[in-house]
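User: Teach me something about this protein's shape.
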Amino acid sequence: MRTYLLLPIACLLCACASTPLPAADPTKAWVDLETQTGKLVMAERLDNQRLNDGRYFQVTPGSHELMVRFDFEVFVGGMGMFSDPQERLCYITLNYDNFQPGQRYRLQARSLGFNAYARLYNAEGKVLTEERLVNCLP
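Assistant: First, the predicted structure itself:
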């Protein structure tokens, strides 16, 4: 019976993972997401509205508030002994006032110890803004 239940779940997960990204709309700005120190960074909200696809932001020109979900591991221990890593989940909010149509941006989330940070970069790698608000769960 378990096998029959696992097969549909596995198929559903494979279908979600293989969905291609939509084509970029030239009238909007595209924001790619990346992390080098965490496990996962996903688009959560755009201007306080939940998104259907957390792999990117596609925004109209102008000012926007972006919120991402950032998952990473921390190692906790005492007296020189580390335990197994613990998951930490943070929601990071950034604001940027000057998104330009047809431009690509990169939002990079990173962790240092228990803290989470994020920066928004333009196509040339210049930092445009940093996190405004970080809310983390243990």
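Now, about its shape. Residues 2-17 form the longest helix (16 residues). The two ends are 36 Å apart (CA to CA). If you'd like, I can walk through any region in more detail.
User: That's plenty for now, thanks!
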